[in-house]
Amino acid sequence: xxxxxxxxxxxxxxxxxxxxxxxxxxxxxxxxxxxxxxxxxxxxxxxxxxxxxxxxxxxxxxxxxxxxxxxxxxxxxxxxxxxxxxxxxxxxxxxxxxxxxxxxxxxxxxxxxxxxxxxxxxxxxxxxxxxxxxxxxxxxxxxxxxxxxxxxxxxxxxxxxxxxxxxxxxxxxxxxxxxxxxxxxxxxxxxxxxxxxxxxxxxxxxxxxxxx
Length: 212
Known about the structure:
This protein is α+β, with helices and mostly antiparallel strands and about 210 residues long. The protein is built from 9 helices and 4 strands; from the N terminus they run βαβαββααααααα. Helix 1 packs parallel to helix 3 (about 65-75). The longest helix is centred in the middle third of the chain and has 26 residues, at about 125-150.
């Protein structure tokens, strides 16, 4: 199994966490987004979407972080990242998708670069864009987590789920862009607890071989 990754990609961060939680051995291949290695023909042949992460397993390539994690969940079901009941699984997926589909894409590197050029926005405007969408997304997640967390250390119930796997990388990005996260004490507390777990700590951007 091989993971095409980039140390600061929050989507790749999610997959690294899931791999660690499930104890799955995986070779990492760094794809540096800054000079555009993900847009080179060699990588596009592997993953036509030209994004990271991508997981190669037995010659097949899977793109998109949540599709990869769902694949890992089905092929390596222990420990589970989704609850047992259909209703609870839907609630966890709802929180995960709120991050991966609604919040993260608006703050993706290619979106921010498009704001800079060709739209000509300066860094102050780009930062304002980023912080606005973080605040919007976290506001709703804060309310959901306050209702769904069973112990103040997890997004749902009292076990690590897919929602936690998505939250920690997004909080990392929020801190990186100096977003004000003080209005979100539930999310902050959950992240502080999760980051002490080895599976999350080993997946962190600073712990990756390509970190710079």
